[in-house]
Amino acid sequence: MIEFRGVTKRFPDGTVAVDNLDLKVDAGKITVFVGPSGCGKTTSLRMINRMIEPSDGQILVNGNDIMQSDAADLRRGIGYVIQHAGLFPHRTIVDNIATVPLLLGWNKIKARKRATELMEIVGLAPEMAQRYPSQLSGGQQQRVGVARALAADPPVLLMDEPFSAVDPVVRESLQDELLRLQSELGKTIVFVTHDIDEAVKLGDKVAVLRVGGKLAQYDEPGVLLARPVDDFVDNFVGRDRGYRGLGFLSSDEIPLGELKTVTIGEAAPAGEEWVLVVDGERRPQGWLGAEQREGLETVSADRLVPGGSLYEIGSGSLRSALDAALSSPSGQGVAVDAQGAVAGAISADDVLRALDATRRDEQPS
Amino acid sequence: MILWDWIPRNLGTIGQQLLQHLQLSLIPVVVALVVSVPLGWLANRSPALRAVLVPAAGLLYTIPSIVLFVMLPGVLGTRIDSPLNIQIALTVYTVALLVRSVADALAAVPSMVVAAATAMGFRPGRRFVSVELPLAVPVLIAGLRVATVSNISLVSVGALIGVGGLGALLTQGFQEFFPTKIIIGVVLIVVLALLADALLLLLGRYITPWVRAGAGARSKA
Amino acid sequence: MNILNQLVSWFADPAHWSGSGGVPIRLLEHLYYSGLALLIGLVVALPIGLAVGHTGKGSFLIVGLANGLRALPELGVLILLVLFMGIGLIPVVIALSILAIPPLLAGAYAGIRNVDPAVVDAARGVGMREQQVLFKVELPNALPLILGGLRSAALQVIATAAVASFVSFGGFGRYIFDGLRIRDYPQMAAGALLVAALALAVEGVLALVQRSVVSPGLRASGGARRSPTADVASTPEPAQPDDPSPAPELAGVKR
Ligand SMILES: Nc1ncnc2c1ncn2[C@@H]1O[C@H](COP(=O)(O)OP(=O)(O)OP(=O)(O)O)[C@@H](O)[C@H]1O
Ligand SMILES: [Mg+2]
Known about the structure:
The structure holds three protein chains of three kinds. Chain A has 14 helices and 16 strands. Chain A is an alpha/beta fold. A six-stranded mixed sheet of chain A has the order 6-7-8-3-9-10, with helices on both faces. In chain A, helix 13 (318-327) packs antiparallel against helix 14 (348-362). By secondary structure, chain B is an all-alpha fold. Chain B has one domain: MetI-like (MetI-like fold, Orthogonal Bundle), CATH 1.10.3720.10. Chain B has helices spanning 6-9, 11-45, 47-62, 65-76, 83-108, 111-119, 124-158, 167-175, 179-207, 209-220. Chain B is elongated. Chain B starts with 5 loop residues before the first helix and ends with a helix. Chain C has one domain: MetI-like (MetI-like fold, Orthogonal Bundle), CATH 1.10.3720. Chain C is elongated, with a radius of gyration of 20 Å. Chain C is mainly alpha-helical. Chain C has helices at 2-12, 23-55, 59-70, 74-85, 89-113, 117-125, 130-164, 173-181, 185-213, 216-220, 230-233. Chains in contact: A-C, B-C. The interface between B and C is large, with 57 and 52 residues. Adenosine-5'-triphosphate binds next to helix 1 of chain A.
């Protein structure tokens, strides 16, 4: 666990980058610092490994005041990932990753072996081991940066906008990768970003800072979206926060409705209403409307209206349930089970009713 | 250590040597400038030529000046103490230094700028003179400054084989064991070099006002 | 051509290859003065260049020194030192070292300064101590420019060592000045050729050294990220690490 106690950073030129910060970072969780440019995110993060020294207050890591330990020793026990990865251009990938183990005095063979393991963990092909950073793509370099930070298995990981220099598609996959890694490793991660979507996606808790280095709100992402404490946070969280907040509400309570289905190869059903077409294993294929059915004798795959997003029962949020309903051509969202087979229908009304119920439950608190 | 009254008594000689020093060191700069702009342009246009010109320039730059001063009479048939040897040698060095600078500077002109100029209807020759060359001026001036300062200092080596402007003060001072001459010589050469450097710097600023405007904007960011 | 024949017969004469005035001895003398001066220059300039580059303190000194010394005529430095210290190895070697220092200093300083700040930051971030930052990260990344400075300094010293023969000293320059005195042009030309050959050979050897000690990771990047050392030499881009030609743009370099 990391604890800030009344931490202030005043730079020699008088700039107050962080102002009397009190904050507890939970062990084994991802905590995100988010806020507009210049609000002191980087400064706060870099004070944890003493890359910047606080002017006032105390920072404890696992109960120990960081000022009591030697700066270099402290840093060897804390992984650190920065924006452009900051890889050493004169060292091969495997040697970059082995940096901290070697600093800690491991022998070369053991350090390289560990580095090779880590390459696999972060999803780098083994043949990259002997390459140099300049021969890697931006996304690959960022993976190396993460691997280097993890090499000595530090309990704490500091990440300063690690994914902001890569394109959105790569960023998305790096974020997913980080979540997967975290579910296996359970590190205490402090993550800095100025992208609220990234913060909400990755954070177990999110700290919103305002310019001048003051903490504006520190909450779980769902709460942040549902109940911003003031206009600043509200503005920062941005438009659609109500809709995005649905992503943090469980949908287990929603009742499933009946859904009329027909299997490919069967006779086309009579009537006007929409019918969902499924295959032999009841996996959804598309929809048949009144128009498509005109003159149709048996149902085939080539005259279907494409379906919307699918809602997977058990693992979905209200957001995915509502999206399934809204994106379906018939207005009925398709709920599927873990095998992908159709389980029932979901309507937007059901989602809103579930939302109402959740609100009522939370009212007393 | 310095016999101050030696100076006024020999002002005439010193003046002549100074003049010769300037001729020996600056004429090569002018000639080299005229030669290296088209060479640099060629090197920039044709990769094959560049592959020859740039390494050749580097190789020439490796040859010590005293070597060229001594070898040129044998190659050109000039007298050993002819000023031409010094001037040609220094021209060679200056060209060697500038060709690469010009080629690099031209290569660094953003292709968007060249494309825009072409789109506006510039023909290649006109475009070179009014768009590409001006953008290469800062690099050119930087190269000229290095070459001019080196030349002014190198001319004195020529005194060893009989033509060296102020360098003669150094060799004579050594032979006559007369420190005044040496010190005056060294001081004048250094002052000359620094003056020329400063003048070129100012000239560069004067003819490329956009560079400083840009630099100011950048340093504020 | 006449001079060519004369040169060939000069080099073919066995008398020129033996004894205290023979080519091998002159070569050793030339290498000895140059090597010694370069070594002293390195011992003085490298620590200062690395320290100033690493801490950023005293940059103005290096910039001023590198630019100022370029204007100093090498012949003047040499003659003044000999005049005041007497003819001997020491004043000549000191003069040569003084000329070697600016390019060495500029190379070391610019090399360290040009290392990507993010890389240096990362080095501290993973827990390197200041010395480790300097020697494990900054120095290896600065090697191309440091060696560029070394090449410039070596050429400068070899050239000036030839000039030093004027103050009655050994080395290949002896042939030039002895020849000049007795109006023996072939001997002068032979001496000049030997100086040129030595300069080219040393340049070639140092280029090979550079190739073998600079990390391929720095070569692969092609110097694309490298920023110019404008504050030192106010000149064009420094030579790229894998470029065989020397870095004449570095301050203090003259031929
Ligand atoms: N070394 C320094 N000296 C003076 N002021 C500084 C220094 N470093 C940062 N600051 C100032 O402190 C404030 C906070 O900077 P910090 O880098 O922590 O911001 P940030 O939240 O990380 O912003 P960004 O999103 O742009 O990275 C800014 O106003 C910045 O200008
Ligand atoms: Mg920041």
